Amino acid sequence: MNKQPAYSLKQLVLYFLQLGATGFGGPVALVGYMHKDLVENRKWITEEEYKQGLALAQLAPGPLAAQLGIYLGFVHYRIVGATLAGLAFIIPSFIMVVLLGMAYKLYGGLAWMQAVFYGVGAAVIGIIAKSAYKLTTKSIGKFNVTSFKKDWLLWLFFIAAAAITFFTQQEQVLLFVAAGLIYMIIKAPPKWFTNKITNSLVLLQIDFWNFEPGILGKIAIFFAKAGTFIFGSGLAIVPFLHAGVVTENHWLTEQQFLDSVAVAMITPGPVVITVGFIGYLVAGFPGACVAAAATFLPCYLFTVIPASYFKKIAANHSIKAFVDGITAAVVGALVGAVIIIATRSIVDVSTALISVATIFSLIYIKKIQEPYIIAIAAIIGILIKLIL
Question: Which helix H or strand E contains 335, and what residues bound it?
């Protein structure tokens, strides 16, 4: 049984509302904020519970940060906590992208937004790079010879996952599973080998895909597929969305799609919330609601259904070794994602300087908050691109 939590359900919901409204930087930064705020500072969640949530979130399809938030809500407040934490995390950014969608339809362009993104994108690199570094040191170990010798296999998983993620441009869930199994077999092999891996990954594969009642039905089907079959961070969903939204269904032009990605990056909360913006452009507010619900419902189910089982067995030495192996690969994949984002956001000397300045600010100005850095970077972007 769980001991009495050190926080109320109301405090948890308010935290995720705040994170959804101010948490810039995409999945890598968001999972870093949750660790810093809930594990290090407030001590609401233990290191072990966080690692379990990160491992489960990476194993299941759907947006990484949203799944981790849902799992952390589940830890002490079960279904109610998971549901309210997930909704609180998603709703602020959903409202923002719908408002931006309204502005986009009214004024027909996002030149100012691209200027903002020029500065914000560079600052985000600094934020997520620092978050990735902290996650690495907490999950695997410090960057020193002692740690490399002691946990050489975890570092090997970390490096392999980072490299594979960078070169393939997406997270490889089979690599995570393989890392977990290998580490479990080496560190704490089970006495008798029986595979009890849950079959929940096929839960939503129902014979409904060919039913097309209209545009909202098409949106629901497409975005449910995105939420069901895309693993990893917000980066992984972008190619899938592009293929369906631009190439197959011709709902958006190439420029409109690029603008939708920009919207995701300059608004707080999960990057995947761009589906709300896309849905709005395609079919107004109903389209935004259907797209968001269809995308996030699968990830909610894939997190809540196995969460209780996953948490109960996590104390087993073999399972702990399995989670440790997965965590090393997951964090490596997140570092690979940082490199991918950096290659797209750091395009010249100015963006490189903004990124480096962000890292140093976070290291040496202890009380500075990420939203202030984002605001300053946005102003710098506007000055450089539209005024200077």
Answer: helix 317-345
Helix 254-266, helix 234-242: angle, nearest 10:
160
DSSP label at residue 151? T
**pTM for the predicted model, two decimal places:** 0.63
Place of tokens 């952390």: 72
pLDDT above 60 for 111: yes
Number of domains in the chain: 1
What does 233-259 look like in DSSP terms, one character per residue?
SHHHHHHHHHIIIIIIS--S-HHHHHH
Does a structural domain hold residue 276?
Answer: no
Residue 219 lies in a domain: no
Cα dist from 28 to 64, 93, 299, whole Å: 9, 17, 17
118-143: pLDDT as tens digits: 777 778 778 777 777 877 887 788 88
Domain with 145, as residue range(s), is 9-198+298-387
- Give ∠ CA 312-317-323 in degrees, rounded to 5: 70
Residue 349 lies in a domain: yes
Please check the confidence at residue 104 and state whether its pLDDT lies above 80.
no
Residues whose CB is less than 8 angstroms from the CB of residue 372 and which lie 6 or more positions away in sequence, other chains included: none
Q: Is residue 20 part of a domain?
A: yes
